[in-house]
Amino acid sequence: MNVLSKASSRRISRLVPALVCLSMFGTGCSQQKLPSRQEVDRQALAAESLHMARLYARWQQEVQAQGKGDRKNGDGRQMPIDLSDDAQYSFVKNRLEAAGNTPENSPQLFRRLEKARKDKKTGTPGSATREALLHSTTTDESSEGSRCGHLLPLTDVATTDASVARFQASGLVTCFNGSDYSYADVTAFATNPERTQFRVLDTQSLEEYAGAVLETPPVDLSLTVGTGEELFVDSMAVAFDESTGEAHLSYTAAESSIVALGARDYNTLSITHPRELTGKHYQDNPIRTCLERGFLSGFLDCDYTSGHKDPVTGVFTPFAKPFTGIAAVDPEASKPPMGEWISAQGQYWEPVGGYDISHLYVVMSGEYLVSLPPYCTVDTLTSDVNVVLMERGGKCTAGTAPGSSVLKGGIPFQTPFFDTSTPLLLHVPFNGVADFGKDCLDPFQNARLMLRATVKATCTNPINNRVTTYTRSRFQDIVNIDWRNACLAEGTQVTTADGKTVPVEQVKLGDKLLTNGKGVALTVTAVSRGGEHKPLVKLKDEHGGEVMVTETHPMVTAKRGVVQARELKVGEALLTRTGTATLVGVERVPFSGQVFNFALGTPEELASVAPEARTLYANGYLVGDSHMQATLEKQRTPDARELLTRLNGAWHEDFRRYQARR
């Protein structure tokens, strides 16, 4: 494996189990003897973590009180680190040095820390919004928050021993379009309810150069139940990028009561939707939402689609305007892999506030089920939902669901209710749409949906009236989820096997389309149709030829091979049915009509042709089919051999020394 794609993980040797007595109010614990220098180091690191935990608690209170959301303050969990504060600066440096980074072996890293401290700017991307970073044509100059996301997946693990609670936690940082350097760690502590004592349990750290998504190996924890301690986990993330000038430093934390998850205890997120409905016969098939268009016949690839539900008849029509909501496919009625897309009865969702064609949505239904001790009252029920773009990097956070009890997040909770069992069993059903807004709109491949639900309760012992707090948090990971859009404008002429041309809207399943100048033809196995709210790319060549396609549609160039339409420039030569044609015009034009696309090739046909043969002629231009579009989107991420060339020269020395110490 290339060294660039295999970052090393290591446990922080100085953070070994140690009890550190520190007071929230400035008084400490008595010492029986003078501590050694090593103990002082451990105590200093734990003391800094405790200080950061106090800052984080106050910051969260401010976020909640001011109603701030993801645009300015992460998702209410990702606290920007202020390097102008000496205590926070010391925390960052000591964490990095404990992980093996020093000014000698990581000179650029520490130079960038000093610059960020001097500039007093961390956690923000300057003038570029996340949407601008995703879409080069965006001109919005307002600053909406960091291009980097920082997450802390913490979940409990089932066990058959009711006296032991098991947990796993990891630190994750990801930046849109990657970063030159990224670092994340995760450290677990056992603490008392008053947060005056921290006992370090375990820690992991990870760093990477020219990467997109970095996640530490998990810490695996086994804690004795009934000790009166609680679990507190924190994570620090660092990312630097020379092209944007961003210095991202953030801190996040999670906590849990120490409870064994077993046969008589529940802490689960049961997900009914989203799930894979149509593609069980495809290898590694994603859960797919087709937001504006998708295959309605043939080899179906849409588990969920946008469309219009008639208020009188209740009939849902996929991809029909005006869009009102999203429906799930009925896999039995649709009979995949070949069939007609038919919506499932009763599985339809409308976004709160109406459907916005420019937003990315995910439907969600299921139940959060959690056990609580007797005599408890629920104080808060919170959640957060993130889409992590595993290949391109970055994350998108769902907005608040109005009318729900969600503090900030995307799980559309409904009214909770209790079972009368002992211990109490809290049921929190959810059913609705998570809205990821406008900053995550490309047809992403290989995304990861990360959900977390947290309940906090106050419990009162009726015998001695002792009041205690109770916290449970559940993390759920849904991998391999994506959204699809890429098509040709209606009216575009495609060439059939016999050399004739027909408009795309007349192509049917079973038709054969010409794929190259050698007379090879492939069968249409699926037809996609729908709309496109973004401008199309209009191409015009020196001979007067024109075509309009969506920005991600594959176009075959004479020199660069297959590229997405949005990458084309004036002067570039495209392959056509008669040879080559040089572009004299590339512009974005609004379009309100329908767009179409096709999947080409039966299994028998594809067995005898190369993958690059899945092409067709559109207005005479050689373009790719839907499968080529999906492949191209994945290939946009450079392989490991290219990463070093992407790494800014300022980081080369750090990288060489990183290799040496590994």
From TrEMBL:
CDD domains xrefs: Hint
SUPFAM superfamilies (UniProt xref): Hedgehog/intein (Hint) domain
Stretch list, region Disordered: 64-84, 116-147
SMART domains in alphabetical order: HintN (SM00306)
Hint domain mapped to chain residues: 485-578
Protein name, as recorded: Hint domain-containing protein
Source organism of the structure: Archangium minus
Lineage per the UniProt record: Bacteria, Pseudomonadati, Myxococcota, Myxococcia, Myxococcales
